[in-house]
Amino acid sequence: MPSPVLLVHGAWAANWVWDPVVPALQQAGLKIAAPTLPGQLDGRPAAEINLDCYVDFVISQIEQLSAGAPVCLVGHSGSGMVISQVAEARPDLIDSLVYVAGFMLPSGMTFPQLCHQVYGEGVEVGASLEVQFDASGDYVSLKKDNLHPIFFNCCDPQVSAPLIEKFLPHPIPGWNLVNSLTAENFDSVKRHYIYLEQDNSVPAALQDCMLTMSPGAKVHKINTDHVPQVSATVELLQILEDIAK
Q1: To 10 degrees, the CA torsion angle through 216, 221, 225, 231?
Q2: Rounded CA gap, 231 and 235, in Å?
Q3: How far apart are CA 235 and CA 111, in angstroms?
Q4: How far apart are CA 101 and CA 221, in angstroms?
Q5: Helix, strand or coil, per DSSP, at residue 206
Q6: Which of 90, 96, 127, 165 is most buried, judging by how many CB atoms fall within 10 Å of its CB?
Q7: With contact defined as beta carbons under 8 Å apart, do 213 and 105 qualify?
Q8: In the chain, where do the E strands start and end?
Q9: Residues 198/154, Cβ–Cβ less than 8 Å
Q10: What is the pLDDT of residues 91-100, one digit of tens each?
Q11: Three-class SS of residue 188?
Q12: pTM for this one?
């Protein structure tokens, strides 16, 4: 039987990022859920948002979706850290993890530390160049004028423009994430990494480094940008179907 598939969006987004693929996956006979993480659209205060909160939420969504069957848990971009921690907490619930240019970091490492290791101290890349913090110190947002070449460089600007307007402020406690992973739990789960060759948000050098530091994932390459849900829908669908089935 195919595994149910739970799709988790990354920072500043919501479940809309999966809209291009959900209907086709359902038509392929897969049981699908694509929830929006706490703190994005539900009005939950930023102070209540952290990695534990995300993990508890995703586990509850898995339990609702799967009726006990292990799921294919897919994380896009920053939610790679969320799915890793879910696998650590409940490896019994996971058939496979799928990182869509996701943050597949070793235990204890932050994404800024990865960037500094690859590019040098103080160097910012991708979306980090466009972040801005609100006056309250609770949320981090993206300046939207230059996001097309960072996220959607393989898309027509007319396609990306309305999507860029959907980006939301992200709770800072849910942005500064650090995994705590063990060989006994996390390493017991099958992993797949969808490598995006033209990604300007998580560039190839960062993806290469993550694959070196967290070995064992099966790599699937797509020659596209950071949002293959939009720019390479057919290719992404095929990979996800193959993994789930």
Answers
A1: -130
A2: 9
A3: 27
A4: 10
A5: helix
A6: 127
A7: yes
A8: 5-8, 32-33, 71-76, 94-100, 131-133, 139-142, 170-171, 190-196, 218-222
A9: yes
A10: 999 999 999 9
A11: helix
A12: 0.97
